[in-house]
Specification:
This protein is mostly helical. The protein has two domains: 65 residues, no CATH class; 64 residues. 69% of the residues lie in helices and 0% in strands. It has seven helices and no strands. The longest helix has 26 residues. The model has no long low-confidence stretch (mean pLDDT 79).
Length: 137
């Protein structure tokens, strides 16, 4: 199974991310347990669901890296609840220097120009991926 994802990542020209390595390793560990070796229809269905979930995440990673479309990110942030452990989303929405809609690259350039922290930029990237994921469903 791990080889299948490595081949898929290579086929799509993507570097394997730590997230996928961990997720794939977790699936492999689960499969290697003796109780998991019994091939049952339920077990097959569970593994197929996990494969589907990982393929969707891989597709989101690819879309994230190739996305140049102008999107209404501030509007999306307002409409979707964000983690409460950071005030980044509130600061992003409130920052009038940031446009209401722009491409991911434009937003990232603006965040760097306005001296947002590396952590803030990382949070922005994760929120952008969440937006892409929610729009893909």
């Amino acid at each position: 199974m791990k080889q299948r994802f490595e081949d898929l990542a290579e086929e799509q020209g993507l570097a394997k991310s730590t997230l996928f390595d961990e997720a794939i390793s977790d699936v492999v560990r689960k499969f290697e347990h003796p109780e998991a070796n019994a091939v049952t229809p339920a077990r097959i269905a569970a593994l197929e669901a996990e494969v589907h979930k990982l393929q969707q995440r891989l597709n989101i990673e690819e879309r994230f890296h190739t996305d140049t479309e102008v999107r209404h990110f501030k509007s999306w942030l307002r409409q979707h609840p964000q983690p409460q452990d950071s005030d980044f989303a509130h600061r992003f929405i409130a920052d009038t220097r940031l446009p209401q809609h722009a491409s991911r690259a434009m937003y990232e350039a603006k965040l760097r120009t306005y001296n947002y922290s590396t952590e803030d930029i990382h949070l922005f990237e994760e929120m952008w991926k969440n937006m892409l994921f929610s729009q893909a469903q």
